[in-house]
Structure formats: structure tokens, C-alpha cells
Design goal:
The protein is an alpha+beta fold. The chain has helices at residues 30-49, 52-63, 100-105, 133-142, 149-156, 158-175, 213-224, 253-267, 306-312, 414-424, 448-451, and strands spanning 3-13, 75-84, 119-129, 193-200, 203-207, 243-250, 281-286, 289-295, 332-334, 337-342, 358-364, 370-376, 387-392, 401-406, 444-445, 452-453.
Length: 454
């Protein structure tokens, strides 16, 4: 196979990168980066090829598959540079417990001595080779005539489809540094990457950070492209239902992340009671100091997920009830009641995981400001035969219970898209209520027409 080109990519780490090796020791490895490149390649490929089987074929060609005629992946990758030190302004470490919004985004994790990886940027080099069409032609000749149609079609369209596959690799390398990140809790903004440079041979694709929000939006839109899967995709992919919202900007990414985290805490709340004063209460803390407090009062009755919470705490959760809050990902909990999915009608066994369709990302602009991005990528919440399961332990004399029901097949994706509106409208209606946003002090709202990519 002839050498196609050398691709070079450079990234800045924007928020704490929570990656670890043995015993959770903080460590950056290229082996953690490449699977995310593949994820973003697959995310784009479904719409670009317009066919799941075709995109799956070229994914196997590029990334390798242990079956004839695919073999090993078509590229090698090496880490060419790492910049030591935690990214600004995280030089004093994570200290999530002093920042209430950031602590919420950790899912109350990162408590067992885990620390961020002490690097603030890295560069990779990828050596890409063209696929060997002769091997696929020889394999096709050995197939029964009745089984050749799909592969013969690939061979006829080989040149155009390979060029698409190659372009997808470049776009995936860009997109992981435009909307994605690495490590634990990357869907909640940790380990966010900003792409600093992308070069394909002598052709420079990206050079430096975008100058402003308009430039960043254009860069994201150009990389995503216009070819989308129409309707609900079979897996997470760029589709007609997906949306990217650049919601807010601020000079200090830690302040920005903290307040976006606090906004999510309020948005996903079910109006739990404050033991001292009664009613809903959330405190926004910065550097261990309480900056603001949200008390629901009458507004607590308007929380989107209040009825979910109340039903789950009832003695017998009705089997016909859908858990609306499951749209944020599974498993989750209402106090001591754990909610997830299982692959059997009885709902027995370990609860299955469904990563959140709502992805947060924090990006750096050339002027030193940062933007917060909320992306919603709809896809099936669980396998077709899965059941939504609620497991409640023994409580107040009631026996433990397990209830199972079908998972919602057509969830309300607007519940996720409205989070961007919740951030943009800080003073609308009742704060924390069904139509209201949050108190904020550090970020500037980015209007929807400027910040939306669809």
C-alpha cells in the first residue's frame, strides 16, 4: 500500500482532563484519544454515506477488522508533543467541592484521590495509507455469485467512497477539538479540547483558534457538513434531529463551567425540599463561598421532573409511567430508587448504561474568552427489547421492589434542547420554573441565531 499522507493535529486542553492508568493514577495515553476519533468518524459517516452498511464497511477498512479482507487499520499514530502543566485557570487543581456547579458535573465523583492529568496540550501525527483494492477484488471473486452485490458496488464506487472515508478522518480529528473531549465525564465538559492546528500533508486545514463566536460557529458548521441522517439514526450520529447550541461566553472558563453546571442542576431538579427552611433550595458556591441561592417557593411546582420524582417515591410505581428524566442518560436515581434498563421483561440483573444525548463542551477563542456549547444528538435510548427498570430498596416498612416497563420510543428531545434556552434566558418567568432560566454573574448570553448550528 502506498503512503497517502501525513496528518498532523494539535490540541489545547481547556478543562480538567480526568484520565488514568493503573490505580486511577493521572496519565494521558494516545490509546484514549484514538477511540474518540473513531467515535466522531462514525458520528459523521452515517449521514455522509447515507447507508449504515456502507459506513460500517468503510469504518472496518479504515480502523481495521479481524476478518478477511479487512485486516489491520490503515494508519499509525504517534504522540509528538505534550505541554506539561494544568491548563489555565486550573493550576491549583480541580477542587471541585469548592465549586458547586463543577461538583455537580462530576456526578459527585472524582473524590478518591483522582487528580487531573498535568498537561495543557498535545500534538499527534497520523501516517495514513491507501487501502489495497486488489485484496478486496480477490475476496469478491471467491464469494458465491449471489453474495457479491454489496462488495461489487463498493469496488465500483471505490475511489469516491475512499476519498469520503479519508475526508471523514480529517473532519473527525477537527470535530473532537470543536465539540468533544477526552476522559471521565467528557459529556459534561471535562477534558474539553480546542483544536489549534490541523494539517494534511502540505495543506493547512485549521490554523489557530477562531477569532470570535461567528468564526467558531462557521468552523463547526463547515466540519459537520450538510449531509445528515434523516430522522432518528440507529446510533448517535449527525442527523436532522441534532442541534448544536453555543449558549454563553466568559473570560474565565472555570467560572463559566461552574455556572453552566449550576444551571444544569436547577434544570434537572425535581424540587427537593430544604430541611431547614422547606421548599426547593440550591446554592451556587465559588471558591467555597456561597454566591447565590435559588429557592423554588411556589415555582417548585413547575419543575419539569417533579411528577417523575413523586411517582418514583410512591409505594407502587405505575407500570404505565414513563421516566421523562431518563432522556438525560441511564442509570440515574431518585434518592434511593435506581433507574436504568435491562434486557429482560422482569428487569432483573445489572442496570444498563445509556450515555447522555446532551453533550457539554467548552472552547477557547483567540481573544482568550471561552464559550459553552450544548449539543443534543438524539438516538435510541436503549436496545429495542430493553425495559425501563426502577429498583427501590426496603424503606419505611415497605418491601424492596423492582418494576419494569417499556422504554419510551419517541422521547421529547425538546427537554434537552430547551437547556440552551434555560441558559440564555436568565430572567424569564420564575427562575428555576418551567420557563425560567438561572441567575448568573460571569457569562454573557449568546443569542440563538448566532449560536445555533443545525
Amino acid at each position: 500500500m502506498a503512503l497517502s499522507s501525513i496528518i498532523q493535529a494539535r490540541y489545547q486542553i481547556v478543562t480538567p482532563l480526568m484520565l488514568g492508568g493503573a490505580n486511577h493514577a493521572a496519565e494521558f495515553r494516545l490509546a484514549s484519544f484514538l477511540p474518540q476519533v473513531r467515535w466522531w468518524w462514525r458520528f459523521l459517516a452515517l449521514g455522509r454515506y447515507g447507508d449504515e452498511a456502507v459506513s460500517g464497511f468503510w469504518e472496518a477498512v479504515l480502523f481495521g477488522w479481524p476478518a478477511e479482507p479487512f485486516g489491520q487499520k490503515l494508519f499509525s499514530a504517534r504522540l509528538v508533543n505534550m505541554d506539561a502543566g494544568l491548563p489555565a485557570p486550573w493550576q491549583d487543581g480541580l477542587k471541585a467541592d469548592a465549586w458547586s456547579g463543577i461538583q455537580y458535573l462530576t456526578a459527585q465523583g472524582f473524590k478518591d484521590g483522582r487528580t487531573p492529568v498535568s498537561i495543557n496540550g498535545f500534538a499527534v501525527e497520523i501516517r495514513l495509507r491507501d487501502p489495497d483494492i486488489e485484496g478486496f477484488e480477490a475476496f469478491c471473486d471467491r464469494l458465491p455469485v449471489t453474495d457479491r452485490d454489496f462488495l461489487q458496488d463498493r469496488l465500483i464506487k471505490w475511489g469516491a467512497e475512499w476519498r469520503q472515508c479519508r475526508q471523514l478522518l480529517l473532519d473527525a480529528l477537527a470535530l473532537i477539538g470543536l465539540l468533544g473531549g477526552l476522559g471521565a465525564r467528557s459529556r459534561r465538559g471535562f477534558g474539553s479540547l480546542s483544536v489549534l492546528g490541523l494539517r494534511d500533508g502540505e495543506h493547512e486545514i485549521i490554523s489557530g483558534l477562531p477569532a470570535d463566536v461567528t468564526g467558531y460557529r462557521a468552523q463547526v458548521a463547515r466540519t459537520l457538513g450538510t449531509e445528515k441522517w434523516q430522522g432518528t439514526p440507529p446510533f448517535t450520529a449527525w442527523s436532522s434531529l441534532a442541534a448544536v447550541d453555543i449558549c454563553a461566553s466568559g473570560p474565565d472558563v472555570r467560572m463559566l463551567m461552574n455556572e453552566i453546571g449550576w444551571a444544569m442542576q436547577l434544570y434537572r431538579s425535581w424540587g427537593q425540599k430544604d430541611k431547614k427552611e422547606g421548599g426547593h433550595r440550591h446554592e451556587l458556591s465559588i471558591k467555597g463561598q456561597i454566591l447565590a441561592t435559588e429557592k423554588g417557593g411556589a415555582a417548585k411546582n413547575n419543575y419539569r421532573f417533579k411528577s417523575d420524582h413523586n411517582e418514583f417515591y410512591a409505594k407502587d410505581f405505575p407500570s404505565s409511567k414513563n421516566d421523562v428524566r431518563a432522556i438525560f442518560g441511564l442509570p440515574h436515581n431518585y434518592g434511593s430508587t435506581n433507574v436504568g434498563w435491562a434486557n429482560n421483561a422482569a428487569g432483573t440483573g445489572e442496570l444498563g448504561r445509556r450515555a447522555s444525548p446532551l453533550l457539554l463542551h467548552f472552547h477557547t477563542l483567540a481573544d482568550g474568552r471561552h464559550v459553552a456549547v450544548a449539543s443534543v444528538f438524539p438516538a435510541p435510548l436503549a436496545p429495542a427489547n430493553a425495559r425501563l427498570v426502577a429498583k427501590t430498596p426496603q424503606k419505611q416498612g415497605n418491601p424492596p421492589s423492582t418494576t419494569a416497563r417499556p422504554i419510551q420510543t419517541n422521547p421529547d428531545w425538546h427537554l434537552l434542547r430547551e437547556f440552551a434556552h434555560f441558559i440564555r434566558e436568565p430572567d424569564a418567568e420564575l427562575r428555576g420554573g418551567a420557563g425560567g432560566g438561572v441567575i448568573h454573574s460571569s457569562y454573557t448570553v449568546i443569542p440563538a441565531p448566532v449560536g445555533s448550528v443545525k
